[in-house]
Every structure is written in C-alpha cells, then in structure tokens.
Amino acid sequence: MKQVDEKYYELLLEIQQVDFIIVELNLYLDTHPNDQAAIAQYNDFVQRSMQMKKNFEALYGPLTAGFSFSPTPWQWHRSPWPWQV
Question: What's the pLDDT tens digit per position in 6-40?
C-alpha cells in the first residue's frame, strides 16, 4: 500500500465529521420537518461536503465507486482507498 501524507488523513477526517453532521441533521429533520433553521444547516453542510469531496478527489483520487468521476487513466488502482485507512 502506498504511503500518503498527513493532509490526506486530515481531509478525510474533516469529510467524515461533516458527513456525520449531515446524518444527524437528517435524523432530526425526520421528526422536525418544518424546522427552517435545521434545513438551512443541512443544506449548508451538504454543500460543504460536496466541495470537500471534490477537493479531496482532485488531490487523492476517487472516494466512492459509482459516485466519483475518474480521470484517465483509471484511478481506482491507486491506494490506499479511503476505507483502508
């Protein structure tokens, strides 16, 4: 497995933290569907997550199969994969 720099782990952790917030807000909104402030927070974090993932993939390659574009040549052979760290 190829070694990666500290920034890889920092960015991956930040993505995981933001995605955790999204899941928690999603659960909250299931029982409070009219909470406009929570909906705004949810949308902000979704947008932030999308941008963070785009930035991560530009540096380190795709995060998820089927949801990430791959430049040429095919990038899935590069390791470590996010689920391996």
Answer: 999 999 999 999 999 999 999 999 999 999 999 99
Q: Is the pTM of this model over 0.70?
A: yes
Nearest Cα to Cα of residue 41 among 22, 16, 20, 54: 22
For residues 14, 68, 76, 2, the Cα torsion angle rounded to the nearest 10 degrees is -20
SS (H, E, C) the chain: CCCCCHHHHHHHHHHHHHHHHHHHHHHHHHHCCCCHHHHHHHHHHHHHHHHHHHHHHHHHCCCCCCCCCCCCCCCCCCCCCHHHC
Taking the chain, what is the end-to-end CA distance rounded to the nearest angstrom?
10
